[in-house]
Structure formats: structure tokens, C-alpha cells
């Protein structure tokens, strides 16, 4: 019989969740790759953790001899991950400074750290998890080490893990100010508006089927900075004005403005990817069909109905006010039918009950949009693998229930893969 390692009576353990965010003014380009300092400011919407989140448990104990980490149940090497090492070092340095200033504090900065982290969305969905993952890591570290940090200060630590992670430290609408300091002390996130400001804003994530592995954001954006003349124009002449316009659109809850800026910024991000040498293509034919459909329905109706945006992959994120969601769901499920081997419930499970009784998704076509019915081809079933419905949400949360923990009392994974 194997015996598990004795647990230290003083061990500390904290579990938290952190949200995903999807940018409406995109971050693409670094001026300092080590400190992860961006070439332009960016702005995103934090999505609800009730739908998508990373969950991280940190166990801190004098008996943990080395730092260890398990991601979705599999152990990964801590020393091999420079960004993870940087986040841990920054948090420990901070704790050490507090301990030096007050010798009565326990010397937690010298203890070993075990990290267990999981995403509640499948990696196969192709959704980037680095933003929620690193935001959750540093938020949990700050809790377990009792670091008295403001949101913007904490966002600087998350930035060391992944640029976009700094925006997942807060809920609602979040901007990342690129800053000008060489040491990154002013390159941090701030909340433009809380999630309560515009609760009607919702999002659909169309998970697009794509066999090939795309260029990683980190590698892609370095090549863009090195080769794209268009990117230089974007950094200096487009983004500063667009950030101001986007903040105003959000403050005014002006969906037409918000949508137009969001779509224009997504288009420009993909344009600088195409201007990269050699070029980078993230959108595929299904992504392009989504752009055409959204453009057509926006043209057809008297007001803008929806905004599309695409990150470093073919998935579409559609922002729209709650009132438009039923019709949009009818349209997307009609033109992008579920894979033949997937049940309707697995394709789209309607968490916010937006499909009225009697309406059959994929079959019933909304009357207002009859004009687009004949102009668009229905895609092959499964071109979109799954539709996730979510909305604007809050920042990271601390979970108090022991059941929520990813690690057991010994600081080891509850389940291994
Ligand atoms: C297209 O934050 O993943 O999603 O800082 O190298 O980790 P690193 O890159 P990452 O890039 C995100 C790029 C984007 C746009 C955005 O989220 O703003």
C-alpha cells in the first residue's frame, strides 16, 4: 500500500475561477516580448464565468519541495514554462518584500507551490485558454500569498503570463493601456465599465470546424511587428482614436457604434495578418460566410443587429443585444447546421432560454430575414461544431467550497489524466 505524503498542518489552499475575454479592439504586436509590453492598447468584453472559465487551486506548503503544476489533470514542467516561472517569481518577490517590512509575517515566500488548473471548456473547442488561465493563476496566487494588490496592479502580473490575460482580471468592459515605461509599470488594465453597465449585451461563440493547427498568437504577432508596414500604421494612427471611440460607444451603450468599431477592428487585425510576410490566415471559408451573413442582415434591417469578431483562429464571436438573440440563433442554426452525429442539445443547449416554445432551431426561419434566405447557401452540416451562448460577466471569483478544489488535501490532483 502506498501512503500519501503527510500534509503540513500549516498548508494553505485557495481555489478561484477567472473568465475568458474577447477583444473588440485587438492586441496584436509586442514592443517587448519578455515583459509582454504591447505595441497598441486594446479593449475587451469579459464573458460570464457561469458559461466559460478556468478554475485553479493553489496549495502552498513548506513540505512542497518543488513547484509543480497540473493542467487539466496532466502534469506539466514548471521550469520549462518561462512565463509561468515569471509569474511565480513576481508574486514571491512581492510577498518577500512584505515579509522583510514586517518580520511577524509568516515566510510564505519560501514555501513550495502546487498548482492545479482546469478549463470548463474543451481544448478541442479551439478557444484560447491562456487569458483565463493566467488571470486565474495570478489572482489565486495573490489570494494565497495575501498580496494587497489593486486590480490594475494584479493585471501587470497576469500580463507576464499572456498579454490578453491582464484584461481577464476584471469584469465588464476592460481596457489594457499599452503604457510607455520600459519596465512595464504603466502597462496595465483598467475597467472601462462594470458588467452591470450593459447587461443586455450578449455573445454567441460559433466554434468553427478546422483541422489544421494555426500559427500561435505569440509567434504570429512577432512576425507581424517585424514585417507589416500596415501594422505600424495601425499602432500609431488607428488604435488611439479607436480606443477613444470604443470607450464612448460603451459609455453610451450605443450598440450601432460598438458593433461597427468591433467589426472594423477585427477586419483590420486580419488585414495586418495578411500583410505579414509570410502571410497568416486565421479565418477560413466558414468564418468568411459568417462575415457575409452578419453584413447582409445588418444591411437588411433598419438598425445594426450583430457584430462579428475573430481572434487568432476561425471561430466567430458574435456580440448582439439580448432582443436580437432569438432571431440570430434561428439564422445561424439554419445556415450552419449541426454536425450530423451531434445532438441538438450538444450543438446548442440554450442556457438563457432564448428559443421560444414551438420554434425549432435549424428549421424555422425568422420572417424578418426572408430576403437573405435565398441569397445564402446553407453550409455543410458541422462547418460550425457548436454554438455557445454567453453574456457580459464579472471578474475572478474565490470559491469557498472544498468540493470546488482541483487539488486534494495533500496538494495533489484529485483526478489524474
Ligand atoms: C488575437 O494574449 O494570446 O486574441 O501575449 O503572446 O500570450 P501573448 O498573446 P495572446 O494574444 C491574443 C491575441 C488576440 C487579440 C486579443 O485578445 O486582444
Automatic annotation (TrEMBL):
Pfam families reported in the protein's UniProt record: MDD_C, MVD-like_N
Gene Ontology annotations for the cellular component aspect, listed alphabetically: cytosol
Residues of the Mvd1 C-terminal domain: 203-399
EC numbers, comma separated: 4.1.1.33
GO terms (BP aspect): isopentenyl diphosphate biosynthetic process, mevalonate pathway; sterol biosynthetic process
Pathway: Isoprenoid biosynthesis; isopentenyl diphosphate biosynthesis via mevalonate pathway; isopentenyl diphosphate from (R)-mevalonate: step 3/3
Ranges for domain Diphosphomevalonate decarboxylase-like N-terminal: 18-189
Keywords recorded for this protein, A-Z: ATP-binding, Lipid biosynthesis, Lipid metabolism, Lyase, Nucleotide-binding, Steroid biosynthesis, Steroid metabolism, Sterol biosynthesis, Sterol metabolism
Catalytic activity: (R)-5-diphosphomevalonate + ATP = isopentenyl diphosphate + ADP + phosphate + CO2
InterPro entries: GHMP_kinase_C_sf, Mev_decarb, Mev_diP_decarb, MVD-like_N, Mvd1_C, Ribosomal_Su5_D2-typ_SF, Ribsml_uS5_D2-typ_fold_subgr
Molecular function via GO: ATP binding; diphosphomevalonate decarboxylase activity
KW Lyase (keyword) present: yes
Organism superkingdom: Eukaryota
First-level EC class: lyase
Family of the protein in this entry: Belongs to the diphosphomevalonate decarboxylase family.
Protein name: Diphosphomevalonate decarboxylase
Species this chain originates from: Tieghemiomyces parasiticus
Gene: MVD1_2
